[in-house]
Amino acid sequence: MSRSMAYKHYQRALAQWPVDLLRPEVSFQKAMQRRIDNRFLPSTTPPQDNVVANNAQATVPAPMKLDEKAELEQVNVLYLFLESKYTKKYPLSEQLMKPASNPSYYQELIRELQEAPRRSWLSSMINKWRGFLRFS
């Protein structure tokens, strides 16, 4: 296991990251975990200079040297997102959240996104067909 400070911070930040209720099968945590494992943990396969597959030859690039300072800066950005720093620093204006053409659009969208994970298959299909058959 890597004893890198950045690796430990990545692990801590990913443990705090919220789960996507709409798409639980697509996980940001899993994607980031694969990235940091590839980056920090040593490979179990020996490096090869040339790889031949399907009669094509390719050179495998040498692993890049780990820049601890750059990795810590990236982890810091994850922590800033977790703390919602940019949402607090750049709040959305009321005019932006309530457009003149449809003032309740964003409130309805948020309500819909909160209800979607708890819906049954039948109610999801009914809503889907309602979207196809809109009458004015």
List the defining traits of the structure above.
136 residues, mainly alpha, two-stranded antiparallel sheet, 2 strands, extended
Overall description:
The chain has 136 residues and is mostly helical. 53% of the residues lie in helices and 6% in strands. A two-stranded antiparallel sheet has the order 1-2.
Morphology? extended
Assess the beta-strand content as a share of residues. 5-15%
Overall number of strands:
2
Please state how the strands of the largest beta sheet are arranged side by side: 1-2
Binned, the helix content reads: 40-55%
H/E element order? HHEEHHHHH
Q: Which regions contain 5 or more consecutive residues with pLDDT less than 50?
A: none
How far apart are the termini? 61 Å
Using only C-alpha atoms, the radius of gyration works out to: 23 Å
Helix and strand composition category? mainly alpha
Mean pLDDT: 84
- Per DSSP, the total helix count is 7
Outline the biggest β-sheet.
Answer: 2 strands, antiparallel
Describe what is shown at a glance.
This protein has 136 residues and is mainly alpha-helical.
Detail the topology: elements first, then pairings.
Blueprint: H1 5-16, H2 28-40, E1 50-53, E2 56-59, H3 68-82, H4 85-89, H5 94-97, H6 105-115, H7 121-132
Antiparallel strand pairs: 1-2
